[in-house]
Design goal:
22% helix, rod-shaped
């Protein structure tokens, strides 16, 4: 007997696994003596996951790495690893319903599941904080920190107001007495950014401060505890240090108005996560002044009436 063997190479045009493969018929003709032999075989071709593209929700420049693993069964797994934490950045893997730390491509689909690699969220510490306090000076005789009003001179000029608010040595005035971390020494005041502004249209004085933490913090609550001012008024009058004061009589009148602020609650303070509202304490202070004038007028009226009554009694005695 003589045997013959023939090899036939078949090239697949693409994966046919989704059609459960493809049947191929083989036929052998042994001549007139033995006839023909026919056999059908099913050939299944799969996707090549080594060349399958994958997607990631992670930005390309935050230090994360992606590693591929061949699982030996035609599937490939991609895994993302976030960068190591540092003193200035921390990383946390964030995933969703269609993203994960590891995604796998199956040879039967040629696609990765879930669809995306997760994202490494970068968190940076809070290196500082800020806050403000607004006061309505519309009805006050002194428009402190105004760059145009004639009353904003001497210690209430913009330059001197900035000096007193930023002072770290004045025992009565300035941001230092109202901001926790300035009192404890856990931050420093940014004297370039900190200061005041005055809106001539609304009559509102805004005192704004910015602080830099000695040691950065990572939580909002930590930042707020250090940088948010207390519920008291930031004083800028009756200061312990001299700031080119005006005439004594004018200054005393200003202080009487301003002192009324401390007797009322402050609602014009702003932290980083709170809304702004205007204080009306100066309006109340002006009202006190008006009441004083009314009382003095009433006193003089009574005095005049009594003098007239006494004169009538003297004339009757004659």
């Amino acid at each position: 007997k003589q045997w013959y063997q023939r090899r036939v190479a078949i090239t697949a045009g693409g994966p046919n696994v989704i059609r459960d493969g493809q049947k191929i018929a083989c036929e052998v003709d042994y001549g007139l003596a033995m006839g023909k032999a026919t056999e059908e075989i099913t050939v299944i071709t799969y996707y090549d996951c080594n060349n399958a593209p994958f997607k990631s929700l992670n930005p390309a420049d935050n230090g994360a790495s992606v590693a591929a693993t061949d699982n030996g069964d035609g599937s490939v797994t991609q895994t993302i690893t976030c960068a190591a934490d540092t003193d200035t950045a921390r990383f946390e893997l964030m995933t969703t319903t269609n993203s994960a730390a590891s995604i796998t491509c199956l040879k039967t689909t040629g696609k990765y599941e879930p669809q995306f690699l997760g994202r490494c969220k970068e968190t940076n510490p809070f290196t500082g904080g800020k806050g403000s306090q607004n006061m309505n000076l519309k009805n006050s005789g002194t428009k402190a920190c105004s760059s145009t009003d004639a009353s904003a001179v001497g210690e209430f000029s913009p330059a001197n107001m900035k000096l007193k608010l930023n002072s770290m040595t004045d025992t009565a005035c300035g941001f230092k007495h109202r901001v926790p971390c300035l009192l404890s020494g856990e931050c420093t005041l940014d004297t370039v950014k900190s200061g005041c502004t005055f809106d001539d249209a609304t009559g509102v004085l805004s005192m704004n401060y910015f602080v830099n933490f000695v040691t950065p913090v990572w939580k909002f609550t930590e930042r707020d505890a250090l940088a948010n001012k207390d519920d008291q008024v930031i004083k800028f009058w009756s200061c312990s240090e001299s700031y080119s004061k005006r005439r004594r009589r004018d200054a005393e009148n200003d202080f009487e108005d301003f002192e009324s602020i401390e007797k009322r609650a402050v609602n014009g303070s702003d932290a980083e996560d709170s809304s702004t509202s205007d204080s009306t304490h100066f309006v109340a202070a002006t009202t006190v002044g008006v009441c004083t004038v009314v009382l003095m007028t009433a006193f003089l009226t009574v005095l005049v009436l009594r003098m007239k009554q006494k004169r009538s009694e003297d004339l009757e005695a004659l």
